[in-house]
Design goal:
Blueprint (H helix, E strand, L loop, with lengths): L7 H24 L6 H14 L3 E2 L12 E4 L2 E3 L14 E10 L2 E10 L5 H17 L9 H13 L4 E2 L5 E3 L6 E5 L16 E4 L2 E3 L5 E3 L6 E3 L5 E3 L2 E4 L6 E2 L4
Antiparallel strand pairs: 1-4, 2-4, 3-12, 4-5, 6-10, 7-8, 7-9, 9-14, 10-13, 11-12, 14-15
């Protein structure tokens, strides 16, 4: 699949799709507290998305049964919401979701602490987020895709965390997943040359222990193999002829 270069009209539609998704994330963040179920988060997220006149793009995607991926503690991504999974003080929870606005997709993820969390958990969340911003320093026309990957790896490696290698970022546009794949770990090849008009979902997934993961029997939920905490931070980014534009931050 070829990497798509968006026209100005498409970029404008992507901007609005992503702006609305950023608002969804901000509203969901305010709802996170001990005692709520992961199903409540999913139901609230779908209600907000549809309230903006948009479609939740995760719902039924390849059979996924919910609108919001809600992943708790050692769950890396794709946790399936449940009325029986109740958040408790000290948990960390990753919310990954997207929406479709006039045919254009957006995608973003955030990890939140539930109530008061340990300093170690907060550091994992913070450094995962920081690694994204280190990576996009290189998300400029004329640089290469794997400059982003290498920068994320170089930043995270100093903390002894594990980078998930089985899952990667991706292009995005009229489809949720487009070319290219975007690893979060060091590559030997430089990758394709970045061009203005590319829209990329860049998403470090970082474990406190090793980067090894397993899939649960539901065939969706990905967990750290060693049971350690995992954090996820993602934004949809536009490559320009100057600095990158983060579309999913208000």
């Amino acid at each position: 699949m070829a990497v798509t270069i968006k026209t100005q009209r498409e970029i404008d539609l992507m901007r609005e799709s992503c702006r609305l998704l950023a608002k969804v994330h901000d509203e969901l963040a305010q709802a996170i507290e001990p005692g709520i179920s992961t199903l409540y988060i999913d139901q609230l997220g779908e209600k907000i998305i549809r309230g903006y006149g948009c479609i939740p793009n995760f719902l039924h995607y390849n059979g996924y049964p919910a609108s919001i991926c809600v992943s708790v503690n050692d769950e890396v991504v794709h946790g399936i919401p449940s009325k029986d999974r109740i958040l408790v003080e000290g948990d960390i929870v990753s919310l990954d979701c997207g929406l479709i606005y006039k045919g254009y997709h957006s995608d973003a993820a955030r990890t939140h602490g539930v109530g008061t969390i340990s300093p170690e958990a907060q550091k994992l969340i913070d450094e995962t987020r920081n690694s994204f911003f280190e990576g996009i320093k290189y998300a400029k026309e004329g640089n290469h895709l794997h400059d982003i990957s290498n920068a994320i790896d170089d930043y995270i490696s100093q903390f002894g965390y594990g980078i998930v290698r089985d899952l990667v970022g991706h292009g995005i546009g009229t489809s949720l997943h487009e070319a290219p794949e975007i690893p979060n770990f060091r590559q030997k090849r430089r990758g394709l040359k970045l061009r203005a008009g590319m829209t990329l979902a860049i998403e470090p997934m970082i474990n406190m222990g090793s980067g090894d993961v397993d899939w649960l029997d539901d065939d969706w939920t990905v967990v750290s193999s060693d049971g350690t905490l995992s954090a996820h931070y993602e934004n949809t980014v536009l490559i320009t002829d100057g600095e990158p534009e983060i579309l999913t931050i208000l």
